[in-house]
Design brief:
alpha+beta, Nucleotidyltransferase, domain 5, 4-stranded mixed sheet, 38% helix, glycerol kinase activity, FGGY_C, transferase, Rhamnulokinase, FGGY_N
């Protein structure tokens, strides 16, 4: 059988054709397009119309190349961003990018309505300005009347599903990271909605991964393919694709690096609040406990800045340049708020970092970013070990960052743990696993992970001795992490 997995990231979107053949998972990219924030009148948006157009184009290409019927389609994407739709299904608002600064402007007013500690206790989510709750609260502070228009809020993948099938609902894993979800009640949190002045009718009913979302409607001009609810949050899908062998840390490495582990249920404590640890939904038994780390966003920004000066650098070329530079010359806290907004990344690094030799050459910037990421990974893993009360003896890196051998080796060295890297298209693989389970071709996540190990090369990086322990102690002291 053939299945389609649409995976949308902050820098690109991809549609894959997949299935199981001869005891191995088959996955082939059939369509790819660039994605990114669009600046307009001092605000940041997503070009949702281009995203939708590329999804439809990818479906047409896949159907032409499949050589047989398509069993189902699943959609996953990054989280938190949304449109409001009217009763007739029309879009009432554009889709703002989570990096837009409207939430920063309203920060103090928002936290007066619900202080950060209370917000964390109720939602279990990290306290972060990019969350859906913060965006809606900022809209309320700006007296945006669209919140009271009888509209329905749909997060990005739910909106794509609605346009294809007419089904208006919200998927569990991506709903769980909005900072508006009640894990205990398995629905939207009444106290948080009231605190921020968000009408309860704005939020759709919640469905769980594996449930049907209907069939693509004829008026779309596309074949009548069933749409299946997958783990729509791309990190939830990526975590499913980590071929675990026991207690382990998982790093879903892309524009963001999500450093986490799986737990049976949420873990919401004062320690978790103090270290801003996020609780995020997954399939039953695969709840995610994690910390957001800035990820390859900094490398993307570096490439873009050099490109603006006429210097073209590939990610592979950046890694080679970084590997050629001496270690530990300059370090940054990759999660410094100054790095959240786009632009001027080299100046920010030089002004906010610590070290004897501020970077000047591209390779020096790369070395600084990658060593700093590896050290922040170690810090995040130690926080997770303390919170969940068990050691995380190995690390699985999945997603696009698993192809960065330089960063993978630095991570092994900094953390003193073996790193297992792959698969690279982890979100699409996890998306496909849920569709296979819904169709009865897989009996469990564990069976799916065994299939992944048999289907994709997993590269292992052993930790090397060095100065990392001493550097880590200084890093934590300099950036007040302990």
């Amino acid at each position: 059988m053939n299945y389609l997995a649409f995976d949308l990231g902050a820098s690109s979107g991809k549609l894959f054709l997949g299935g199981v053949d001869g005891g191995r998972l088959r996955l082939r990219e059939v369509h790819r397009f660039e994605n990114g924030p669009v600046a307009l009148a001092r605000h940041l948006y997503w070009d949702f119309f281009a995203i939708h157009r590329n999804l439809c184009e990818g479906i047409r290409i896949a159907c032409a190349e499949a050589g047989g019927p398509i069993a189902s389609l699943g959609i996953d994407s990054f989280s938190n961003d949304f449109c409001l739709i009217g009763r007739d299904g029309a879009l009432l608002t554009p889709m703002r990018c989570y990096r837009d600064d409207r939430t920063a402007r309203a920060r103090e007013a928002i936290f007066q309505k619900c202080p950060p500690r209370r917000l964390y206790t109720l939602s279990g989510n990290q306290v972060a300005l990019f969350n859906t709750a913060m965006q809606l609260a900022a809209m309320r502070e700006e007296n945006d009347r669209s919140l009271d228009s009888g509209a329905t809020l749909l997060l990005l993948p739910d909106l794509l599903c609605a346009l294809l099938t007419g089904d208006v609902s919200g998927e569990y894993t991506i709903s769980s990271v909005t900072q508006l979800f009640d894990f205990a009640a398995d629905t939207w949190h009444a106290e948080l909605l009231k605190a921020f002045g968000i009408p309860a009718e704005l939020l759709p009913p919640v469905c769980h991964p594996g449930s049907p979302r209907g069939v693509i409607r004829p008026e779309t001009g596309l074949p009548a393919i069933p749409v299946v609810t997958v783990c729509e949050h791309d990190t939830a899908s990526a975590f499913l694709a980590a071929p675990l062998t026991g207690d382990a840390a998982i790093i879903s490495s892309g524009t963001w690096s999500l450093v986490g582990t799986e737990t049976p249920a949420p873990v919401i404590t004062e320690y978790g609040f103090a270290h801003n640890v996020a609780n995020e939904g997954g399939l039953p038994g695969h709840h995610r406990l994690l910390r957001n780390v800035m990820g390859s966003w900094l490398l993307q920004e570096l490439r873009a800045e050099y490109a603006g000066e006429g210097v073209t650098l590939s990610f592979g070329g950046l890694a080679e340049l970084g590997a050629a530079e001496p270690p530990f010359s300059f370090l940054i806290d990759v999660d410094d708020e100054c790095f959240f907004s786009p632009g001027d990344v080299r100046r920010k690094i030089r002004s906010r970092g610590r070290g004897a030799v501020p970077p000047e050459r591209p390779g020096q910037f790369v070395r600084c970013i990658c060593e700093s990421l590896a050290l922040k990974y170690r810090y995040s893993i130690e926080v997770l070990e303390e919170l969940c009360g068990r050691p995380l003896r190995e690390i699985h890196i999945v997603g696009g960052g698993s192809k960065d051998s330089f960063l993978c080796q630095l991570t092994a060295d900094a953390c003193g743990r073996s790193v297992h890297a792959g698969p690279a298209d982890a979100s699409a693989v996890g998306n496909l696993l849920v569709q296979l389970m819904a169709a009865g071709e897989l009996e469990s996540v564990e069976a799916g992970r065994a299939l992944i190990r048999a289907s994709f090369p997993i590269q292992t990086f052993a930790p090397r001795r060095g100065e990392w322990d001493a550097v880590y102690r200084c890093y934590c002291e300099h950036f007040h992490l302990k």
